Structure formats: C-alpha cells, structure tokens
C-alpha cells in the first residue's frame, strides 16, 4: 500500500504510460519510509496495471536483497550475474523487466562495478532500481548513471490519519505509533501490528538504563546472524530518546552522529555504538 506519495505515483504512471522511464533509479530515504513498497507497486503496475502490491507472481520482476544466512549480509558478484541474465531477456508480460536491489548499501565493490557496466550499456527493455538509505553509500560513478528519487518523511498527523483510516486502530494507539514513527509509515505499521513490539520496547528501556547491559547486547547485535535486527533496534532506541529531547540530547546527538558515520563508511559497529552510548554509563 502506498500512502503519502501521490505525486510520485502520478509521475511514474505517466512515465510508464509513455514508456519514458529511465533505465535506472536510486530510491533513497530513511528506513521504513516506503521505498521498497513503491518499487514493488511500480513493478506490479508495469505488469498488471495496478499501482499496489501484487497478489500475483511478478514474472517480469527480480527482487534482490542481502542474504544474512548464506552470504553474511552482502550482495556479491553472483547476484549480479543473475541480474544480468534476467535483465537482458526480453519481457513477455510487460514493457520492462525490472530488477529491485534492496539495501543496495550491501553491494560489494566488485558487484557495484558490475552494475556500473550494466548501467553504461543498459538493455532497452530493462529497469534497475537501487534502494538505499543514503545514495552516498554507493560509488560516485554508479550514482551518476541513475536518477535519484528521494522519499521524505510524512507529518506525524498524516501518519496518524493513515493508522486510523487504514489500520483501524484506536486513537491512543495511532497517536503513540505516529509519535514513535517519526514520519515513517512502514515503522508505524510495524509498531501497531507487530506482536513483538511490546517486547522490543521493554528491551530498549532496559538497554537505555543499564550501561553493562548495553555492552552485552551490542556485542550480540553486531554478530552476523543478528545484523538484520540491528537497524530496527537502533531505530527504536532513537525514537525513544526523541521523546525527551531535553534530557537525552547529548546521547541522541552522539548516537545519530555515529549511525551516520556507520552508514557512510565501513567502521567497526560495536566500537562506534559503545563510544556513542558512553553517555549513559
């Protein structure tokens, strides 16, 4: 479901109708903002004519994302070979064959250079969408070959209205989730629908109160098998800190700064997090 990006929907529908879509886009913005959902809806529109998430199998769309079990959360050269084979085949049920690469920050240097070669001589009937939080996590030459589309946050009021209208939750639940979402509809949906949300909130509360528990949990969360959970957990930490800015500003500033550095550079996550959270110990 797409909410809050009506102008983008209209723009991409128009481009698709006239077959004026670019060969490639970088969809960027914060996590749980709707980037990947928008991309899947576009793929469904190209194949079935509806700008919604599909209930059908999309034969003209290949969805690539990091594999934390088999490849330690990276997207390597093997995936790019699959992409190339898929993208250069002629479409049957759509004007375009679409490849979505979620969390494209996980691309290895070799994989990025392989994508660059595809982008330099793109197939006429192919469309490649890279989905990232920050486009600067990709090499500049690769960025220059794609059109960048920014997905901004929505207002708290807009998120609350979505939860009331679409999720049918109570006013109290909608208000609480909207405040913690910070303009991210996907995050708001997860808060109200996740069975684990209460447990996560309790874990975060304990985390913020105990310096020794912080270090133990950080060591656990940066392990390869838990890396996919780290982003969600840290988002919850930041959201809780925002609720009392006067008290938590020093910690919040330090943590956000470290998270930004972690997103831009290949830094030791455990050391960065421990350094920023020293304020509470």
TrEMBL record:
Top-rank taxon, per record: Bacteria
GO biological process: DNA-templated DNA replication
Stored Pfam families: DNA_pol3_delta2
InterPro entries: DNA_Rep/Repair_Clamp_Loader (IPR050238), P-loop_NTPase (IPR027417)
Gene3D superfamilies: P-loop containing nucleotide triphosphate hydrolases (3.40.50.300)
Protein's UniProt name: DNA polymerase III subunit delta
Source organism per UniProt: Candidatus Colwellbacteria bacterium RIFCSPHIGHO2_12_FULL_43_12
Highest classification ranks of the organism: Bacteria, Candidatus Colwelliibacteriota
